[in-house]
C-alpha cells in the first residue's frame, strides 16, 4: 500500500538529513510538548527503522500537526513533513481510524448537513452540555473552535452572480471554508478580481481532500482531489490561471496531493498544480508588472499579520505584507510566531486541543502585545483559532484590500 | 502568465553572509529579496564572531596577525578583500545587534585581542567579537570558575568541561542543578525559552546560589534567553551576585538564533524580503550577466529578475557545492566554475583526520572584487568562497561578515553610479 | 605470574571461537576463551551480516550449499534474537548470463537449498528499488544476522555455564613441551600483565590469524591467506530483502539489509597481513557501479562507511604450493594436530563462513573430545542461546518500539541509533570499560548517519560525570573516536556524507575545538 503512494522518493530524501536540529527549532509542537519528540526524530530518523512489511508500535508521529515548517526550514531538502504524513498513515492503518477523524475530515458532508439548518446547528454547537457529550462520544474537544455555518452557500451566490462581459478569464477555487462558512469572503475575492479586470469563472467544485489526507484517509483523499482536478482542469487547459483564497487548499493542489498521495503522474492534477495561485501571490505579481489597480482609499487601522504555516509552505514569502503596505493609513505589524495551533483539524481533537492552545499561546500573546484591533491571516481555520484565542476579529488580507478599494 | 517578480538584488542564502549582505543592501536603498532553501548556518554556530583564531598557532591579536596570515594565504578571502574590509563589517554587525529586537543585547571585542573562551568540552577557543553574555568567560581573567550543568540539557556536560579547564591550569569545578521543565530532555532552545521567564530564573538562581563559593565566575551552557538575553543574563547575575557567562555547545544554538532573529529583523525593517523554502533551480543569462533565477515554489517555478545576484549559499556543508560519487564537484545553484579542486585522479582526502585535506579550500572561483568568474553581476560571499578552512582557522563569521559587507558595498556603488549616469 | 587452568583454552573470540566456548561449556567442559581485542573484532565483526541460504554456492560448491542450507535452519532456531528473517532474492540482471538461472535452480534442488521462482513483477513489488529490468527472480531463505549480538550471546551463554571469557588478552606464547601443547601465555592489552593458562586442549580459532598462531606453536604449513574484501554500508535500507546477483560468485554481488543499513559487498584482494585495512579507491568505485546494476540510483544514495574484512582462506602448505585467493577453498578446515603433526593438545579451526560457525564449532569440540578421550555429544543444534529462548526473530522496529515505550522517561543520547541514557549507563556499568569503542560495538553508538557528531560528546560527558572515566580518557575518547570514524569515511566521502562530515567538523573543531584540548 505504501508503495502505491510512491513512498520511495520521500524515503530517499532522508539521506540528506545531517541531524542538524534546525527542523526541531522550527517545529511548533515539539517545542511545547514532549509527546511529540520532534520532526527529526519521527521523520528521517525513525524512517530508518521502518520496513514496508513490518509493523511497529510507534505512536508519537500522530502528534505531528502536519504544519510543514520543518520541510521549509530544512537546509538540506529532507521532505520531513511528507515522510511524517506517510508514517502517520501507516500508524492509522494499524490502529484503526476513529469515527471522529472520518467525520471531521469531510467538511462537505458536515457542510451539507449543517447549512440548511444553520441557526439550529450553530446554537447546538455552542451549547456547552452538548459539546461535552460530543467530546465524550466523538473526541472533539468541547472548547475547540468550530466555525458557524453561514446558512447559505457561496455556490448559490455564484450562480446568481453576473460576471462582466469582458476581462481576462480566471478560475476561482473557493474551497469548503468559503462555501459553507464564509461565503462573504468569496464574494469579496470575486469583487477584487473583477476590479482588476478579471472575468471570474466558478466551476462546480468540491473538497480538495486535505482534511482526509491529514487524517490518514489516503484513499478517500485521492478520490476527492482527483475529482477536483477533473473539475478544474478543463477550464485551465488554455492557460487560464486558477486562484484561491484558502491557502491550505491551494497548497494541497499545488504540491501536497502530488507529493504525499503519490499523484505526480496524473496529468490533470499536474496542470492544475502548475496553474494554481494563492490570491495574494497573484495580486503581487500583477503589481510587479504594474497591472494592479492601486486606487486604494485610506484604511486607518492597526492590523497584525500572521502567515499561516501552510501559506509559508507555498514558499513565496509573505506577499500579503507587500500588498497591505500599499494601503494608505494601514499600519501592519508583522507577527513572528510560528503557528496558531489549529493545524486544520488537529486542534479540534480532544487529546490535541490543549497542545494546540499551547502552540498558539505565543501568537495570541503577540497579538495582544501588538495593539492591533484586527488580525489578517490567509487561512480560514487559522482565523477561527485566532479569534478563539485572542477574542479579536480576524480577516483574510484580501478583505482589507476590498475595503480599501471601497467595493 | 509566467510567474515572475523583479528586484534590484536577489541574495541566495540565509546564513550570516546572505542576511548581512541583504540587510546592508536594503538599508542602502536597494530592493532586495533573499531566497533560501532553508535556514542557514546561524542556528548551528556558537554565536561568536571568529575572525582569526589559529594560523596555525593560536592567535592572540587578530588585527596584528592578519598581515602575516594574508601573506601566507594569498588565495584566502581576507587576501582578496584586504584586511581593511573586516573592521567596518564588524562595526556594522555590532550596531545591528544593538539596534535589534533583543533589548540591550550587545557584542564586545574586536580585532585588537581575541577573547579566550571555554568550549563545551573545556578546550579554550579564541574569538574576536563575542556576546556580552559570554565575555566573563575569558580564561585570561584570574579567579575560580564554577561550571554549571543542567541535567535536562543533554547537550552540555559541566564535569568534563571543568576537568579540561583544570588541566589547563584554571581553578575550575563543576556542579549540577536540577530544574523541572516538564520534560525529561530539552535542547538549548527549549531551555533558553525557560530562561526568558523571570520566575524560572528566580527559582534557578535560588537553587544555584546555594552551591556557589565566593569569588566564582559561573559558566552556564548558552541558554540565557532567546528573546531577551541581556535581561536574562543581567537578572541572573544580579540574583546570584556572581559574574555569569554562557558556554556555546551542541546545536541548536541559542546565541546563533539570536543572530538570525536580529538579522531578519533588520532585513525586514530595511524593507527587504525573505523567502524560505525556495530552492533556486535554474538561471537565465543575458551575455555575461545573470538576468534572473528560477526558484522552486510550490506547484510552479517563480522567476526572480534582478540586476545583481549575491551567491551566499555556502560550501560543501550546505550542499550548495556538491561532490558527486564520480568525484567531481559542482556548484549546484548557478552552475559556476569552482577553484581549488585537486586534479582528476588525485586524492580528495587524506587519511589523517587532523592533517591537510586536499578538498578543504574549494569554493566558487572569484576575482579580487569577489565577482564570480564568467559573470559580470554575481558576487560571492561567505562559505561559498574558496581558499579558507574556517573551522580550523577560526574565521567563519569573519569571512561571512566581511564578504557580506564587501559585496553589499560593491553593489551599492554600482547602483549609485548607474543612477547618476 | 597469575595462572589459570581449564579443560579447553580457546584462542580467538570471533563467532567460531565463541561458538566453541559455548559448545564446550554445554558439554560440561571447563573453558577459557581469550581474544586479543574486544570480542568479534576480527573477521566476524567485519563482514556484511549475511546468513546464507546456500544459494550462492548452489552451482559452484554444492557441498558448501548443502551445509549452509542445514545450518541456516539451525541458526535461525537457536540464535533467533540475532537473526532478521529478511528472506533473499536471486535475480538475473541484464548484466548476468540468463542461462545461469536454470543451473542455479537445479543446483538448489540438488543441494537442498529451498528455492522458489517468482515473477520479476512480484520481486519488484516487494522491492521497488530493484533494477526494473530483471528477467528472473528466485526466493531463498537468506537472512541477516547481527554478529555482535550473536557473539555476545555465545559468550554470555558460555559464561553462564562457568566459562571464563577474557577479551583484550593476546596470546604471546604457546606452551609446548615436546609433542604436547599444554596451554598458552597471554598478555593483557590494558594492563600489560601476563597470565599463563594451562589447558588439556588448546583450540586455535583465530581465523585469518590462524597461521600466525600455528607458527607460534611451532607447527608448519598452516597457511591462512587473508582474502581482503571491502564492504560499504549505505545509510538506509534500500531493500528489506537480501539481494543476490544470479551468477557465479563475483565482486559486489550481494546487498544485505542489516539493522538500519544496507551493506553491499564484497571484493577479493589477496594480502599478506590480516590486519591490513587498506581500501583502494578503484575498489570503491567498482563497488558503487555494482550497486547501480542492482539498484538504479545507488550512486546517488548515501554511503555511510567502508571497511574491510579478511576472509580466512586456508591452504595446507605442508604438501602443495601456493594458489589464487578466491579459488582457495571457502570450506572450513579442522586440523587435529595430533593426527596431522603428532602434536597433541592442539587443534586449529579456520576457513569457513559465518553461516557455518556452529557446525565448525561442533566439529572442533568433537575433535577436542576425541583428544580428551571423552564422548560428550553436542547440544548446540537444539539449545537456544540466551535471548533466543522464545524463538522470536529480531525485528527492525525493535529499537523504535522500545524508545516509544520510554519516550517520556529517559533521555535519548545517540539519536541515530535510538540509545537512551539508561541503556548507555547500564552498558557502561556492566562492561566496566573505559574504552568508548567497546560500548560502541555493543550498542552501535555513533554508527548511524551522523557518525557520532552529537553522541560522542554526550557519551564522554555522561561517563565523565559518573566518574567512570577521567578527563584524559574523555579527551582520548573524543579524539580517537573522530579519527577512527574518519578512517572508514574518507574513501566514500561524497554527496550527503560529505555534508555530514563537514557539519561534524564544525562541531568537533569549530564548537568543541578538540584539536586544542589540553
What are the main properties of this structure?
heterotrimer, A: 407 residues, alpha/beta, Fumarate Reductase Iron-sulfur Protein, Chain B, domain 2, Rossmann fold, 4 domains, 4-stranded parallel beta sheet, 8 strands, globular, B: 421 residues, FAD/NAD(P)-binding domain, 2 domains, 7-stranded mixed beta sheet, 12 helices
Architecture blueprint of SSEs:
The complex is a heterotrimer of chains A (407), B (421) and C (518).
Chain A: H1 7-12, H2 22-26, H3 39-47, H4 69-73, H5 80-95, H6 99-104, H7 107-114, H8 118-126, H9 128-138, H10 154-160, E1 168-173, H11 175-181, H12 183-195, E2 198-201, H13 210-214, H14 218-236, E3 241-244, H15 247-260, H16 267-275, E4 276-278, H17 279-288, E5 301-306, H18 309-312, H19 319-324, E6 330-334, H20 353-370, E7 374-377, H21 380-390, E8 394-395, H22 397-405
Parallel strand pairs in A: 1-2, 1-3, 3-4, 5-6, 5-7, 7-8
Helix pairs in contact in A: 3-5, 7-11, 10-12, 11-12, 12-22, 14-16, 15-16, 20-21
Chain B: E1 4-12, H1 16-27, E2 32-36, H2 62-72, H3 77-81, H4 86-98, E3 107-109, E4 115-118, E5 124-127, E6 129-131, H5 132-135, E7 145-150, H6 158-167, E8 172-177, H7 188-195, H8 198-209, E9 217-221, H9 229-240, E10 244-247, H10 254-269, E11 273-276, E12 279-286, E13 289-296, E14 301-311, E15 321-323, E16 329-331, E17 338-339, E18 363-364, E19 378-380, H11 390-393, H12 396-420
Parallel strand pairs in B: 1-2, 1-14, 2-11, 7-8, 7-9, 9-10, 14-19
Antiparallel strand pairs in B: 3-6, 4-5, 12-13, 13-14, 15-16, 17-18
Helix pairs in contact in B: 1-10, 1-12, 4-12, 8-9
Chain C: E1 2-11, H1 15-26, E2 31-34, E3 50-51, H2 62-78, E4 83-84, E5 88-92, H3 100-111, E6 116-118, H4 120-126, E7 136-140, E8 143-145, H5 147-160, E9 164-166, E10 169-177, E11 180-188, E12 194-204, H6 210-216, E13 222-234, E14 242-245, E15 254-258, E16 261-265, E17 269-270, H7 281-294, E18 303-316, E19 332-336, H8 337-341, E20 346-351, H9 357-372, H10 398-405, E21 412-414, E22 419-420, H11 421-431, H12 436-443, H13 455-465, H14 471-489, H15 495-511
Parallel strand pairs in C: 1-2, 1-12, 2-9, 5-14, 12-20
Antiparallel strand pairs in C: 3-8, 4-8, 5-7, 6-7, 10-11, 11-12, 13-16, 13-17, 13-18, 14-15, 15-16, 19-20, 21-22
Helix pairs in contact in C: 1-5, 1-9, 2-3, 11-12, 13-14
Amino acid at each position: 500500500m505504501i508503495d502505491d503512494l510512491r513512498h520511495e522518493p520521500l524515503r530517499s530524501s532522508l539521506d540528506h538529513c545531517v541531524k542538524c536540529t534546525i527542523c526541531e527549532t522550527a517545529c511548533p509542537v515539539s517545542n511545547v510538548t514532549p509527546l511529540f519528540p520532534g520532526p527529526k526524530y519521527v521523520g528521517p530518523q525513525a524512517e530508518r527503522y521502518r520496513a514496508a512489511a513490518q509493523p511497529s508500535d510507534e505512536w508519537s508521529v500522530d502528534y505531528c500537526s502536519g504544519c510543514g515548517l520543518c520541510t521549509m526550514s530544512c537546509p538540506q531538502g529532507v521532505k520531513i513533513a511528507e515522510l511524517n504524513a506517510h508514517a502517520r498513515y501507516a500508524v492509522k492503518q494499524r490502529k484503526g481510524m476513529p469515527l471522529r477523524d472520518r467525520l471531521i475530515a469531510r467538511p462537505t458532508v458536515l457542510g451539507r448537513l449543517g447549512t440548511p439548518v444553520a441557526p439550529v446547528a450553530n446554537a447546538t454547537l455552542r451549547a456547552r452540555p452538548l459539546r461535552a457529550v460530543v467530546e465524550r462520544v466523538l473526541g472533539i474537544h468541547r472548547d475547540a473552535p468550530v466555525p458557524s455555518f453561514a446558512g447559505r452557500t457561496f455556490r448559490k451566490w455564484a450562480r446568481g452572480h453576473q460576471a462582466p462581459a469582458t476581462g481576462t478569464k480566471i478560475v476561482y477555487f473557493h474551497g469548503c471554508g468559503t462555501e459553507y462558512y464564509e461565503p462573504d469572503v468569496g464574494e469579496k475575492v470575486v469583487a477584487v478580481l473583477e476590479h482588476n479586470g478579471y472575468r471570474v469563472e466558478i466551476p462546480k467544485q468540491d473538497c480538495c481532500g486535505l482534511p482526509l489526507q491529514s487524517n490518514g484517509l489516503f484513499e478517500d483523499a485521492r478520490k476527492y482531489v482527483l475529482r477536483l482536478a477533473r473539475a478544474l482542469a478543463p477550464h485551465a487547459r488554455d492557460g487560464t490561471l486558477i486562484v484561491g483564497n484558502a491557502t491550505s487548499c491551494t497548497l494541497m493542489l499545488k504540491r501536497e496531493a502530488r507529493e504525499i498521495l503519490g499523484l505526480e503522474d496524473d496529468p490533470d492534477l499536474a496542470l492544475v498544480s502548475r496553474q494554481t495561485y494563492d490570491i495574494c501571490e497573484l495580486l503581487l505579481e500583477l503589481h510587479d508588472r504594474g497591472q494592479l489597480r492601486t486606487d486604494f482609499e485610506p484604511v486607518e487601522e492597526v492590523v497584525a499579520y500572521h502567515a499561516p504555516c501552510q501559506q509559508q509552505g507555498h514558499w513565496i514569502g509573505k506577499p500579503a505584507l507587500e500588498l497591505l503596505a500599499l494601503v494608505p493609513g494601514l499600519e501592519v505589524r508583522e507577527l513572528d510566531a510560528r503557528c496558531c495551533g489549529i493545524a486544520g483539524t488537529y486542534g479540534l481533537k480532544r487529546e490535541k486541543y490543549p497542545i494546540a492552545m499551547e502552540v498558539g499561546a505565543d501568537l495570541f500573546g503577540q497579538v495582544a502585545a501588538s495593539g492591533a484591533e484586527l488580525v489578517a491571516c490567509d487561512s480560514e481555520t487559522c482565523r477561527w483559532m485566532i479569534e478563539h484565542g485572542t477574542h479579536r476579529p480576524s480577516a483574510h488580507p484580501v478583505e482589507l484590500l476590498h475595503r480599501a478599494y471601497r467595493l | 502568465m509566467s510567474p515572475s517578480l523583479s528586484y534590484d538584488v536577489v541574495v541566495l542564502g540565509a546564513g550570516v553572509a546572505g542576511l548581512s549582505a541583504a540587510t546592508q543592501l536594503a538599508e542602502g536603498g536597494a530592493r532586495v529579496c533573499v531566497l533560501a532553501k532553508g535556514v542557514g548556518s546561524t542556528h548551528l554556530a556558537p554565536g561568536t564572531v571568529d575572525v582569526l583564531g589559529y594560523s596555525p598557532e593560536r592567535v592572540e591579536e587578530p588585527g596584528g596577525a592578519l598581515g602575516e596570515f594574508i601573506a601566507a594565504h594569498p588565495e584566502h578571502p581576507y587576501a582578496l578583500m584586504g584586511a581593511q574590509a573586516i573592521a567596518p563589517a564588524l562595526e556594522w554587525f555590532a550596531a545591528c545587534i544593538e539596534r535589534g529586537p533583543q533589548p540591550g543585547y550587545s557584542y564586545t571585542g574586536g580585532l585588537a585581542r581575541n577573547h579566550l573562551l571555554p568550549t563545551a568540552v573545556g578546550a579554550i577557543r579564541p574569538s574576536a567579537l563575542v556576546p556580552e553574555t559570554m565575555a566573563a568567560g575569558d580564561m585570561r581573567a584570574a579567579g575560580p570558575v564554577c561550571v554549571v550543568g543542567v541535567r535536562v540539557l543533554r547537550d552540555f556536560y559541566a564535569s568534563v568541561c571543568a576537568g579540561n579547564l583544570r588541566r589547563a591550569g584554571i581553578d575550575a569545578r563543576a556542579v549540577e542543578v536540577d530544574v523541572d521543565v516538564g520534560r525529561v530532555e530539552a535542547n538549548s532552545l527549549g531551555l533558553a525559552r525557560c530562561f526568558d521567564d523571570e520566575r524560572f530564573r528566580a527559582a534557578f538562581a535560588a537553587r544555584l546560589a546555594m552551591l556557589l563559593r565566593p569569588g566564582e565566575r559561573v559558566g552556564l551552557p548558552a541558554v540565557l534567553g532567546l528573546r531577551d538575553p541581556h535581561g536574562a543574563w543581567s537578572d541572573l547575575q544580579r540574583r546570584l551576585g556572581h559574574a555569569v557567562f554562557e558556554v556555546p555547545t551542541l546545536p541548536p544554538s541559542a546565541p546563533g538564533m539570536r543572530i538570525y532573529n536580529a538579522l531578519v529583523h533588520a532585513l525586514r525593517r530595511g524593507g527587504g524580503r525573505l523567502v524560505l523554502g525556495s530552492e533556486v533551480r535554474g538561471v537565465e543569462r543575458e551575455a555575461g550577466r545573470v538576468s534572473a533565477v528560477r526558484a522552486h515554489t510550490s506547484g510552479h517555478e517563480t522567476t526572480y529578475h534582478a540586476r545583481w545576484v549575491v551567491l551566499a549559499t555556502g560550501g560543501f556543508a550546505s550542499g550548495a557545492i556538491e561532490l558527486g560519487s564520480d568525484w567531481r564537484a559542482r556548484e549546484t545553484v548557478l552552475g559556476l566554475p569552482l577553484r581549488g579542486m585537486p586534479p582528476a585522479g588525485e586524492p580528495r582526502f587524506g587519511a589523517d583526520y587532523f592533517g591537510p585535506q586536499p578538498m578543504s579550500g574549494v569554493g566558487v572561483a572569484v576575482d579580487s572584487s569577489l565577482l564570480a568568474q564568467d559573470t559580470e553581476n554575481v558576487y560571492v560571499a561567505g562559505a561559498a568562497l574558496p581558499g579558507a578552512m574556517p573551522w580550523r582557522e577560526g574565521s567563519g563569521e569573519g569571512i561571512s561578515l566581511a564578504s557580506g559587507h564587501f559585496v553589499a558595498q560593491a553593489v551599492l556603488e554600482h547602483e549609485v553610479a548607474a543612477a547618476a549616469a | 605470574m597469575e595462572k589459570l587452568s581449564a579443560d579447553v583454552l580457546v584462542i580467538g573470540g570471533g563467532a567460531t571461537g565463541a561458538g566453541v566456548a559455548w559448545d564446550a561449556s554445554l558439554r560440561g567442559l571447563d573453558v577459557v576463551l581469550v581474544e586479543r581485542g574486544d570480542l568479534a573484532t576480527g573477521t566476524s565483526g567485519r563482514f556484511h551480516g549475511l546468513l546464507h541460504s546456500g544459494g550462492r554456492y548452489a552451482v559452484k560448491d554444492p557441498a558448501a550449499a548443502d551445509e549452509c542450507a542445514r545450518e541456516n535452519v539451525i541458526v535461525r532456531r537457536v540464535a533467533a534474537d540475532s537473526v532478521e528473517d529478511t528472506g533473499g532474492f536471486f535475480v538475473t540482471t541484464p548484466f548476468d548470463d540468463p542461462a545461469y538461472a536454470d543451473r542455479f535452480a537445479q543446483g538448489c534442488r540438488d543441494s537442498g537449498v529451498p528455492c522458489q521462482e517468482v515473477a520479476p513483477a512480484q520481486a519488484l513489488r516487494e522491492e521497488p528499488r530493484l533494477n526494473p529490468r530483471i528477467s528472473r527472480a528466485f526466493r531463498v531463505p537468506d537472512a541477516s544476522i547481527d554478529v555482535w549480538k550473536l557473539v555476545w550471546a555465545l559468550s554470555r551463554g558460555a559464561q553462564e555455564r562457568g566459562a571464563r571469557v577474557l577479551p583484550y588478552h593476546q596470546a604471546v606464547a604457546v606452551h609446548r613441551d615436546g609433542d604436547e601443547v599444554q596451554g598458552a601465555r597471554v598478555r593483557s592489552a590494558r594492563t600489560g600483565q601476563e597470565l599463563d593458562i594451562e589447558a588439556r586442549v588448546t583450540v586455535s580459532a583465530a581465523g585469518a590469524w590462524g597461521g600466525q598462531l600455528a607458527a607460534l606453536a611451532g607447527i608448519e604449513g598452516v597457511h591462512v591467506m587473508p582474502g581482503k574484501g571491502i564492504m560499504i554500508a549505505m545509510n538506509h535500507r534500500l531493500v528489506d530483502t537480501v539481494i543476490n546477483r544470479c551468477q557465479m560468485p563475483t565482486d559486489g554481488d550481494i546487498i544485505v539489509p542489516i539493522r538500519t543499513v544496507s551493506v553491499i559487498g564484497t571484493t577479493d584482494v589477496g594480502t599478506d597481513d590480516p590486519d591490513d585495512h587498506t581500501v583502494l579507491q578503484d575498489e570503491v568505485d567498482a563497488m558503487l557501479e555494482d550497486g547501480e546494476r542492482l539498484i538504479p540510483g545507488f550512486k546517488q544514495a548515501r554511503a555511510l562507511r567502508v571497511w574491510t574484512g579478511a576472509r580466512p582462506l586456508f591452504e595446507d602448505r605442508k604438501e602443495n604450493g601456493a594458489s589464487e585467493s578466491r579459488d582457495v577453498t571457502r570450506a572450513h578446515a579442522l586440523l587435529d594436530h595430533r593426527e596431522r603433526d603428532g602434536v597433541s593438545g592442539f587443534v586449529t579451526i579456520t576457513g569457513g563462513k559465518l553461516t557455518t560457525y556452529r557446525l565448525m564449532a561442533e566439529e572442533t569440540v568433537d575433535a577436542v573430545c576425541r583428544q580428551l578421550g571423552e564422548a560428550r555429544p553436542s547440544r548446540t543444534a537444539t539449545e537456544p542461546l540466551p535471548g533466543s529462548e522464545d524463538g522470536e526473530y529480531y525485528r527492525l522496529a525493535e529499537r523504535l518500539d522500545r524508545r516509544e515505550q520510554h519516550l517520556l522517561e529517559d533521555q535519548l543520547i545517540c539519536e541515530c541509533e535510538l540509545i537512551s541514557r539508561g541503556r548507555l549507563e547500564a552498558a557502561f556499568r556492566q562492561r566496566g570499560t573505559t574504552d568508548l569503542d567497546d560500548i560502541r560495538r555493543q550498542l552501535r553508538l555513533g554508527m548511524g548517519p551522523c557518525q557520532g557528531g552529537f553522541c560522542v560528546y554526550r557519551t564522554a560527558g555522561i561517563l565523565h560525570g559518573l566518574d567512570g572515566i577521567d578527563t584524559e580518557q574523555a579527551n582520548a575518547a573524543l579524539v580517537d573516536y573522530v579519527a577512527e570514524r574518519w578512517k572508514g569515511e574518507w574513501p566514500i566521502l561524497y554527496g550527503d556524507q560529505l555534508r555530514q562530515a563537514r557539519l561534524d567538523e564544525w562541531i568537533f573543531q569549530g564548537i568543541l575545538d578538540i584539536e586544542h584540548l589540553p
